[in-house]
Amino acid sequence: MERPDPGGVPLLEVRGVAKSFGAVAAVADVSFGLHPGEAHALVGENGAGKSTIVGILAGVHRPDAGTVALDGEPVAFSSPADAKAAGIAVIYQEPTLFGDLSVEENIVMGRHPRRGLGMIDRAAMRAEARALFERLGVRIDPARPARGLSIADQQIVEIAKALSADARVLIMDEPTAALSVVEVERLFSVVRALREEGAAIMFISHRFEEITELCQRVTIMRDGRHVSTDPIAGLTVDEMVRRMVGRDLDALFPKQDVTPGAVVLEVDGLTREGVFRDISFSVRAGEIVAFAGLVGAGRSEVVQAVFGVDERDAGTVTVRGKRLRPHSPRAAMSAGMALVPEDRRQQGLVMDLSLQRNVTLPRSGALSRFGFLFGPGERREVLRWTDRLRIKYGRLGDAVGTLSGGNQQKAVLAKWLAMAPAVLIVDEPTRGIDVGTKAEVHRLMSELAAEGVAVVMVSSDLPEVLGMADRILVMREGRLVAEIPRAEATEDSVMFAAMGQDAAA
Q1: Residue bearing the bigger pLDDT, 364 or 410
Q2: How do residues 98-144 score in pLDDT, each as one tens digit?
Q3: Ramachandran quadrant class, 78 (left: phi over 0; alpha: psi -120 to 50; beta: rest)
Q4: How far apart are CA 191 and CA 118, in angstroms?
Q5: How far, in Å, CA of 180 to CA of 497, rounded?
Q6: How many CB atoms lie within 10 A of CB 433?
Q7: Which part of the chain is the ABC transporter domain (predicted)?
Q8: Among 491, 494, 489, 488, which Cα is nearest to 474's?
Q9: Regarding beta strands 263-272 and 276-284, do their DSSP bridges make them parallel or antiparallel, or are they unpaired?
Q10: Is 213 helix (H, G, I), strand (E, B) or coil?
Q11: What CATH number does the domain containing 330 carry?
Q12: DSSP state of 245
């Protein structure tokens, strides 16, 4: 039975916790508790301190002040191993399994069952894995290699791994960001089963519909501080957003009305065998054109080929009347095209380099003198864009990997906007970032369109597509199947086209 406001001693509790990194106070005076049998949401904008709290509970960071209590008794974790031994497990958005080992070997890693002469008892290992999957109500072959598993299955394996180590607290950090609707529901079924067994779940997500469906209570953080902890049943999404951002969110989609200019980007007959075929479209100055469709429809692959990252078998790409050489990002950049990729960590940024160096990377030649970067000029360029994009950082010289996810996304945008592109391609511009930062990214996209930039957006967020696009191009199974103007676009019309169904039916 669900308890919206559980009583008694929390299973895990943070009391007045504070943590700073250099001059930056990541969290200050944060307190809340997780109770047995409860799914508890932790929400806040990127940079609110959620990841720091996770790091403290996982034994990665030690708090500068305050305490962590387990079953009412203060505990001090010196390492992640200490936290695991105490029964705390973290399930990250990107699982960390050993791909070349089997599923069962990943589950018992470091605790292999033994038989005579110290040999690994593989029969016992397999039996344990099967029992865990049966307990979770899922079907995964314990003997198969972990490599090749879907993200959803990898997360289930991580949960099984935690349960095999007798975890009583599961911290789930953005676990659904890369999952389909069916995979999300399966994951939620597993979480509900764990709740019924008495586990405490901390669920971190930017998706309010998931929070209200799964969780009983929610703790809201802002600027590293605790704002509130309340039962979900008594809160609306609007109220949660107001507490997160500290203000009313006037417009999540601040789209400006712009009269489109001349055609800037023209794509004709673009084909990559087995991936997409005969893709043709154009984008005018001041226009935002969105690609919509189901996962696997080929949207990201099309824009990667347009930019020259991926090869194409046929078709042409023309920018401002100049036909581009295929498979050449350098030619695309020279013609005035920029691409903000979906995977900002792997493709958009050099995580170990500073924020300053990442932002100026594409323009390092223009900012150099006699082969050396000119420091003051580089700094002025970076400050211009960090101010405009409202990037939150400690120092410009800090590694960009230390920034929050939303600020990393803004850093990728700053890197390309510094080039003053004529065409800006953004692939999943707001995936994994909080509602306040989403509004800022949307504001920026609208401003750029008003300044005459041709914007191409790929998004799986249907409200984002409807709220920001002047035209929507719908793809299905590698083909362009519909073009819907803004005035005629609805959720139904886009989804019917994406699924190949007749709207009248």
Answers
A1: 410
A2: 989 999 999 988 778 888 777 888 899 999 999 988 888 888 999 99
A3: alpha
A4: 36
A5: 18
A6: 22
A7: 12-248, 253-502
A8: 494
A9: antiparallel
A10: helix
A11: 3.40.50.300
A12: H
- Residue 190: other Cβ atoms inside 10 A: 18
Domain boundary pick from 189, 212, 245? 245
Which residues make beta-bridge pairs with 373?
Answer: 368
CA-to-CA distance for 321 and 121, rounded, in angstroms? 68
Alpha helices in 251-352 (DSSP H): 299-307, 329-334
- Is 117 within a domain? no
Q: Would you state the pLDDT for residue 503?
A: 46
Residue length, the chain? 505
User: 474 and 357, same structural domain?
Assistant: yes
3-class SS of residue 445: helix
Q: How confident is the model at residue 15 (pLDDT cuts 50, 70, 90)?
A: very high
- Is residue 337 a part of any domain in this protein? yes
pLDDT at 2: 42
Picking from 305, 311, 304, 398, the residue whose alpha carbon sits closest to that of residue 359 is 398
pLDDT in tens, 391-414: 888 888 889 888 877 788 888 888
Query: In whole angstroms, what is the distance from residue 43 CA to residue 208 CA?
Result: 9
Output the six-digit token pair for 361: 């990377």
* Residue 29, token pair as written in the block: 């005076």
Q: Which of 256, 258, 289, 250 is nearest to 439 (CA)?
A: 250
Any idea what DSSP says for residue 190? Answer: H
CB 215 within 8 A of CB 406: no
Scanning the structure block, which residue is given the tokens 């806040």? 44
Q: Longest C-alpha distance within the chain, in Å?
A: 79
Q: How far apart are CA 467 and CA 253, in angstroms?
A: 5
Same domain, 241 and 319: no
Give me the residue label for tokens 């305050």.
66
Ramachandran sector of residue 452 (left: φ over 0; alpha: ψ -120 to 50; beta: rest):
left
361 shares its domain with 430: yes
The confidence score (pLDDT) of residue 453 equals 97
